[in-house]
Amino acid sequence: MHQEGQLSAGSLVRRWFQVLLGLTIGSVTGMAGLVAAAADVGVVRLTEYELGRIERFDQAAHTNPLTRKGCRRYLAVRWLVGALGAGVICMLAFWYFVAGSMVSAWLLGGDWAFIEEDDRVSLGLILLVLVPGVLVIFVTTVGVMGVAALDRWLATALLGTSQQTLLRQRVAELTSTRAEVIEAIDDERRRIERDLHDGVQQRLVALAMLIGRARRTKDEDHLQELLQQAQDTAGEAIDELREVATRVYPAVLDDSGLEAALEVLAERASVRVDISTELTKAPGKALEAVIYFVASEAVTNAAKHADPSVVEISVWSSRSEVAVLVKDDGVGGADRTGSGLSGLARRVKAVDGALDVLSPVGGPTMICARLPCA
Fold it and tell me: What pLDDT sits at residue 326?
């Protein structure tokens, strides 16, 4: 516990000196920003530098895309914060110099011999300087962090969105996403019910009819023919049931991972599918499922509507996201508002991802999903 406290205190001291350095630089660039705002020259570039300085020495400010007008207004006001920071730094340096001088005099002078017993006025003057000096040093030390927070707040207020507004937007986004996810689940349930009703159920009804006819027939040859038809129908029902189960969730995804699931998808597709994966690490089961269903739906749509000769699936990852791109050389013209792609968009949005669809008439069609990862 004691070591953890020391580490915490050390990190706080390092952070304070880091913020002090950033504030020192900001006090200089504040006047440069005032000149740039007055001359309307280089305001965007200087604002980008200021935001980079704030992020490097303190923490990032939440800003919207920069505009020339907004940057000029920001720099025209920001010099006040720079001047305040310069004042705090100068006051801090002055009182540290005074305190250092007094300590040096005591260490070099030895026993404060210059203070006689009757010279209480001198001692009072020393205390009059020392006590306010300690208070001012404390206030200015804390003030360094305060001015840095003011610097960050000003950038957010003039160039971006406040934390409260961001929080409200996030709550609204999550509320909307939750409703879309519920709608997507309902759509998926209806599709599964339709697949079972129109596919598997019809096969099983036909199978029952064939078995009934086989039980009533007296002709041995006809019996064997009906049994063969029943066997074929049962096999078709099993295949369709397996397809429905795969569309719900492929077992191979849990058993062997994303690459194996994509390979199985390619083998079952009615068109040629080429797969390229460049994953530095496994993205996790939730993201793997989203990637698989994006690829599966895109391949199904391409085979059904685009008549492509080949479909290419590319999966790659970076430090902050994992992406999947499905490209086909078909006729194009994919409708993003259709049930398939809109369902994919909701599924991707449920994990804070984004789905882009580019499908001009004549092709090619490119469907790209970008998913944030830890």
Answer: 92
